[in-house]
Amino acid sequence: MSDIAVYLVLSGAVFAGAFVSGLSGFAFSAVAGAILLHVFPPIEAVPLMMACSITVQAANLYALRKSMQWKTSLVFIAGGLLGIPIAIYLLQNVDTGIFRLGFGVLVSLYAAYALLRPTAAYLRQMDSRSRNALVGFGGGLVGGLTAMPGALPAIWCDIHGLPKTQQRGLIQPYIGVMQLFALALMLSHQSLSLKVLIDFGISLPALAAGTAVGIVLFGRVNEAAFKRIILGLLLFSGLCLVI
Fold first, then answer.
1. Residue 221 dihedral angles phi and psi, to the nearest 5°
2. Buried b (16+ CB within 10 A) or exposed e, 1-22
């Protein structure tokens, strides 16, 4: 593949991932990875996607700063910070392929069911700190194994019927902290190669454009459309783990 073709593929994948993440708050790696992992080796693609995703999360946190719910999100974050080191250990010592497959099937089935259900019956308010911390722990564990830390919290918010602004304000800080912590753990064992840094610099224009378009569209979609978008992305992300 020529250098121009690689640049176009990289820019297209990053734009698509940034657009989806700017719109929904998560799924950058699922969307961009579906393309980049076929072009770059995992040792380059994974840290590149993490760096790009953290940049998108930083832009999201700033653009939507007035709706962020840091106090509520701290319970999820505390649980998640305990889950990630366990996931890193499992990645290094256990074959996690079956877990990834099983989790992908569960997420896909839930998303498909939620998209097809005639009426939604929501649970009561998310007032249990222990349950929220457990969901955060599960998200950190799953995120370390599948690069999808926002999947479980997104499902938890859907089960409780949270409106889009409240859901975004809760999940966005959680995902941002989880990704920063995971990247810090990765960099403690290895450094970013010059190739990854160059590719990251090349992808910045597409990253900025995709994020801006996604954030603007987030403010314009209604509640029903946003829920369908989230469930559709969960279905796509789950299928990416299965296929």
1. -80, 150
2. eeeeeeeebbbebbbbbbbbbb
Provide the residue type at 210 as one letter.
Answer: G
* The predicted structure's pLDDT at residue 215: 95
In terms of Cα–Cα distance, which of 93, 89, 82, 87 is closest to 143? 87
List C-alpha distances in Å: 185 to 19, 70, 89, 96: 27, 23, 11, 19
Alpha carbons within 13 angstroms on the beta-carbon side of residue 93 total 6
Q: What are phi and psi of 185, to 5 degrees?
A: -65, -40
- Containing H/E element for 134? helix 129-146
| Cα separation values, 80 from 16, 46, 162, 174, 237, Å | 27, 20, 20, 8, 20
What is the band of 122 on the pLDDT scale with cuts at 50, 70, 90? low
Following DSSP, what letter does each residue of 204-232 receive, concatenated?
Answer: HHHHHHHHHHHHHHHTTS-HHHHHHHHHH
What would the mean pLDDT of 28-53 be, rounded to a whole number?
A: 84
